[in-house]
Amino acid sequence: MDLQDTAEVLAAKRNELDSLVQSHRYGPEFGMLHDEVLRLERVLADERGEPHAVVLQLGDVWDGMLAYFPTVVGAAFSCAVVFETKKRTAYAVVNFLSIAGYKLTDISDEIIEGHALTGKGLTAYGTFIVKNSPWLSELQSVDSVHPQHDPERWRKSRHYLLCFKDSLFEAIAQDVQVVGTFATKNEALERALELL
Fold first, then answer.
1. Per-residue pLDDT tens for 126-145?
2. C-alpha to C-alpha distance for 181 and 188, rounded to whole angstroms
């Protein structure tokens, strides 16, 4: 399928999805069509060389719809995010390794449609890697003037994005790992601090 075909198929699928929303039909057909629209958004953005969000699997700890108020514990070269797990019975620690930057904003599920990656694979409550990231390119460009600039560092780096219920966390890092789950938030925070 060429670029024009992909764009036309995506437009048709979006119309079908809008029709289901208008008629309040949110069954299995809606879910499958929604997933297909996201897939096509990613394919089209990739074909165009545009920034887009692809799904990052964080195992059974993630449920952004239920994840409120993440706590970020960070230093110059590493950071960890602490949040309630999918089962709401424990707290998860997700560690970002060899970071170049991180930020936590108040972009919530109610305003996610205003984000630049909406329509390019981003959805509320998800975890993603941003392909063709302008933020990653910007940081790499700034770093390029350093006498010890290491292009390999930037080839290994990724733009990670976690969509919580009421906030959005982003990091430029070389890797991410789920450290584990803990019975209390204090235990999770203690573990996050040990990682710095």
1. 999 999 999 999 999 999 99
2. 7
